[in-house]
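USER: Write out one fold?

ASSISTANT:
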Amino acid sequence: MLTPEDFLEATKWGGIATLVFAAITALTFVFGLGIRFRLVGVTGFLAVLTAGFFGLSFEPFTRTQISGAIPYTTVYDSGAIQVVIKVPANITEPELKATLRQAASNLFKPGRLGAAGQVPTIRARTILHEEPGVTRPLYLGQVQPIPDPETGEPLSIEIFRDRLTQLPKEK
């Protein structure tokens, strides 16, 4: 997977190519060659491509990997303050805490919309199959980007321990 550093390197090469084609285009205008207007298009395209590479060099594409976290699926994302992730029904409390921490690292971005004063929240849930044809969602915990005064961490992670006891015991 490409990293921001790769896009920054592509920006350098794209900038060099744009400058070279701009010089060639200028020479074709000086000498009145018939290809000059085509080279204007090529130079413009290279400039736009370089600007795109530069923009992609700012946002990390790599996902944070936190030790102990298990794979999750995003099942709801309002694009603003509400996100729900699905975790397996056999999750343990340490795995849930690490998974919430990883989801917060991957999903809490500055580009999230929301009104002033609203706090983004990621909630973890699983599905319980209590009887054939009947399922029940069970929310196990949530994380918010509020500094926790007890631990000094930048995230406030809340685990619903009473709901963890309702999970099936097999692992």
About this structure: Residues 4-31 form the longest helix (28 residues). The chain has two domains: 4-56, 73-164. The helical segments are 4-31, 36-56, 93-107, 161-164.
